[in-house]
Amino acid sequence: MINKDTIKKLLVTGASGFLGWNICQEAKQNWEVYGTAFSNPKKVQGAKIIKADLTDLKGTEKIFNDIRPDAVIHAAAATSPNFCQDHPDESGKINIDAAVNLAGLCADKKILFVFTSTDLVFDGLNAPYKEEDTVYPVNIYGEQKVMAEEGILKKYPSAAVCRLPLMFGEPATVASGFFQTMIKALKEGDELTLFVDEFRTPVSGQTAARGLLLAVEKAAGLIHLGGKERISRFNFGLLMMDVLNVSEARIVRCSQKDLKMSAPRAPDLSLDSSRAFSLGYDPLPLREQLLECLKEHL
């Protein structure tokens, strides 16, 4: 039973998005959870949702003064690399300006602050990447995250900047993500084209959320929250096919150069997450994470 007299308040931005939703579900047992949402202000179980435009600094300050959070996890972002590539000014307002302003508010009020960054800050040519490795993003989304990281740590050196890998799991929003598209294709026997030359260290949204909550308590500065297994998109599809026990799926191999998109893609963004592992971050094997996420489809 939660003691209402001692429970701390956690503010999760982007609470109705995929990652924010997972954070709220993991945090609700130990925190009084508040969440902000902008484009999709739906109910989120376990959190009190506030519609907010985080690019409005005065409005954000009011939310801080009203809630008085003990910790903030900033998960709100424009996360589509293609959108950011085509709309750099619009996406920069939330991905850079809002993030740095939030860090400043937390620094001023001595509130624990965790920022969700990405493995896309690297160029994919020298993986696996440690926190101290040189960043060199190949697209605007990665550039924006680098600028946010630098601005945040300048304003608030003890903030935790968590670089996250490719994430999968059940959706929190109306829109369907890549994982749901893969499930549908695999189960219905549709053709599914996947890269053989793009490698990541993926985790489930639940695993990432646990890592971020650990970072609230134990981390400062840069930290990687990747999984323990490096895998290509193609082999990830094969693993999903095996977990779902479908034999008629049509997975087609392709290379990054075969698919033209607005945002360039890096070949290998595998993360070395040894620092997080030493703090207690312990992702399950990828198969076990997939079994948990896919249990309703089995």
Walk me through this protein's architecture.
By secondary structure, the chain is α/β, with parallel strands linked by helices. It has a domain at 8-168 and 202-229 and 270-284: 3-Layer(aba) Sandwich (Rossmann fold), CATH 3.40.50.720. Helices cover 39% and strands 19% of the residues. It has helices at residues 18-27, 57-67, 81-86, 88-109, 140-155, 178-188, 205-218, 233-244, 274-279, 286-294, and strands spanning 8-13, 31-37, 47-51, 71-74, 112-118, 160-164, 167-168, 191-195, 199-200, 203-204, 221-224, 231-232, 250-254. The chain has a 7-stranded parallel β-sheet with strand order 3-2-1-4-5-6-11, sandwiched between helices. It has a two-stranded parallel sheet with strand order 7-10. It is globular, with a radius of gyration of 19 Å. The chain starts with 7 loop residues before the first strand and ends with a helix.
Features:
298 residues; alpha/beta; Rossmann fold; 7-stranded parallel beta sheet; two-stranded parallel sheet; 10 helices; 13 strands; globular
Quick summary:
With 298 residues, the protein is an alpha/beta fold. The chain is built from ten helices and 13 strands. 39% of the residues lie in helices and 19% in strands.
Q: What's the CATH architecture of the domain at 8-168 and 202-229 and 270-284?
A: 3-Layer(aba) Sandwich
Question: What general outline do the C-alpha atoms trace?
Answer: globular
CA-based gyration radius: 19 Å
Helical element count? 10
| CATH superfamily grouping of the domain at 8-168 and 202-229 and 270-284 | NAD(P)-binding Rossmann-like Domain
